[in-house]
Amino acid sequence: KYERDFTTCPNDGFYSFVSQIRNCFNDEWLTFNTDHTGNGNGNMMLVNASGTGGVFFNTIVDGLKPNTTYQFGAWMVNVCGINGSCSPLPPNISIRLYARSGKKLAGFVTGLLSQNEEPHWRKFFGYFVTPPDVSSLTIIMEDNTLGGCGNDFAMDDITFSECVKPPPVVQPKPVLAEKKINKPPAAKAEKKKLTTKVPAPKKEQPILSTEKTTTGIPLTSLPPLDEKPITKLIPQPILTRDNPVVKRIETEPGKIMIDLYDNGEIDGDTVSIYHNNELMISHAGLSDKPIHFEVEVDAARPHHELVMVANNLGSIPPNTSLMIIMANGKRYEVHISSSEQKNAKVEIDLKK
């Protein structure tokens, strides 16, 4: 959904590679004098979000080792100023790694990229293992937030770091001190017993051998404090199935009430419901009595994704349900059909 722009202030739905950001949209965007690494001649990827979100990055990575643990990392920043005219609409980036065969290897979600008064780059990272027959992969990144104003970001320094076990700790062997024998006078030698004192070895701390770079910085050093791990892994039932969007709703701030019923004959259908990739309801049976839950839509929580996962197909496939959504006096009916290969997603967003 994105096209490349060659200006320093791309419009909605465009991206560009720039070394600095300044004077964009009446200074709605923050000023960046360099890219993340501080290189005034380097480049970062600047994305002016499409109003409908979508994939903004898709490329192939070669040269990986099979059957190896890697840390994926990328630095990202919200470029929108905190005092701009747009209401907060933080980007929420999902990252998916695929083998060239199309098999999904891993999925991560950054969570919301918050706005700040000054540029604040943060490293997002997560771990995955390459299969025995995989040495290259496809990386796809998608902005899950809908809306253009306030939903803009930059990215820099994508890394794939091989995780290497440190060498084993080698305990030094104690060195015995030489025996010291005090020689008595010759006349009394036969009456004196020889005594030998061997001091106990000192207890030494384990020493780890750490490989160093040419700059002397340990390769095994801990990450800086401003690095943020990608803690929201995409659950397997969402990662391994298709997730078509069956309904999108824009609403004013307020509490959204949701009821889920069996749609048709009650035949033993059970579902699990995920809210923003977190399990909300597990293995609930659908019937004529509603499964009720609520979500709050406001500036701090502008985007909600509800994914219905079929745990079984009941006696009459597929797994079907009726979702009733009440949002600020408006009623929405959503007819949902899910299977063991396909989930159903409903998106609710704060109205601009």
What does this structure look like?
The longest helix is centred in the last third of the chain and has 4 residues. The strands form 4 sheets. The protein has a 7-stranded mixed sheet with strand order 1-2-3-10-5-8-11, with no helix packed on it. It has 1 helix and 21 strands. The radius of gyration is 30 Å and the shape is globular. Helices cover 1% and strands 42% of the residues. It is an all-beta fold.
Secondary-structure blueprint of this entry?
Blueprint: E1 3-4, E2 14-18, E3 44-48, E4 54-61, E5 69-78, E6 92-99, E7 104-112, E8 122-129, E9 137-143, E10 152-162, E11 227-229, E12 232-233, H1 236-239, E13 245-251, E14 254-262, E15 270-275, E16 278-285, E17 291-297, E18 303-310, E19 319-327, E20 330-338, E21 344-350
Parallel strand pairs: 1-2, 8-11, 13-21
Antiparallel strand pairs: 2-3, 3-10, 4-9, 5-8, 5-10, 6-7, 6-9, 7-12, 14-17, 14-19, 15-16, 15-18, 18-21, 19-20
